[in-house]
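Feature request disguised as a bug report, sorry. It would help if multi-protein outputs had a clear separator. Right now it looks like this:
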Amino acid sequence: MDELTDIKLLRKRLNLTQSDLAKQANVSQSLIAKIESNKLEPTYSKAKKIFDTLNNLSGQQENKAKDVMTTIAISVSAEDPIKKAINLMRKHEISQLPVIQNNLVCGMISETTILNNIEDLEKPISAVMEFAPPSVSSETNLSIITTLLKLCPLILVQDKGKVKGIITKADILRNV
């Protein structure tokens, strides 16, 4: 999502008054005024309404997960040795991998996890893997994905229970 401080700038670019924007976004004019003067931080739903309205009025739609995801999802099995993860990461120039068990993502392994377990590269990944990364649908807005990426280095894109791709910070930066 854009910064709250961008609301006034975007509104003025569209030649809208606070009242016009409030009507379009179905919020009060006083809410717009308080946000623009940094006197109030709106709820997520109110901010989303305002930004969605501004984006719709300017003809811009927010990108979705499907627009930025990497569709070739490389993964490792929970039973694979750590060494296999290293080889795949090196070959594909990536820093983390989803871990699959019984056709489901059960965790992930990252460079940090590998460095913390460098003494035994034959150890199974299941013994050292991190929690499974969050997953989103292919229609999830980029603003939600960027927020998740601040908390986790890898996001899975799934539809109907099947992994369709992955998103990392590098994917976001590649599409800026």
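(second protein starts here, but nothing in the output says so)
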Amino acid sequence: MALTIKLTQKSTKHMIIHLGGSLDTVTASQLDKKVDEVLTGSPAHLTFDMENLEYMSSAGVRVILKASKGLEKNKGKTTFVNLQPQIKKVFEIIRAMPDMSIFSSIAELDDYLDSMQKRVLGQED
């Protein structure tokens, strides 16, 4: 599934990134490039609108965390709105993880995130 990215300038220092589709290993580089472009404008506030985002893997999580850290360096703020239940679950899982790695590989983490999102959507195998 493809990733759609749309930017909306809310104010001179507030940018909204609207995401749709799938944010995964294949599509994460698209968002990474777009975030880099946005951060060159030194926004004070970046909002990710995830209303139409259907799936997110660990690659997507990495891009989101990188964006947040980039903003924090300049005392900026990152917010998230309109999370679908399965995407919210990914954030809950990530927040619950200790600082140390609990997965043996990226593939294992992606499998886990995939199964949790399917469970939330009632699509268990």
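Even a blank line would do. Unrelated, but nice: The chain has a mean pLDDT of 86.
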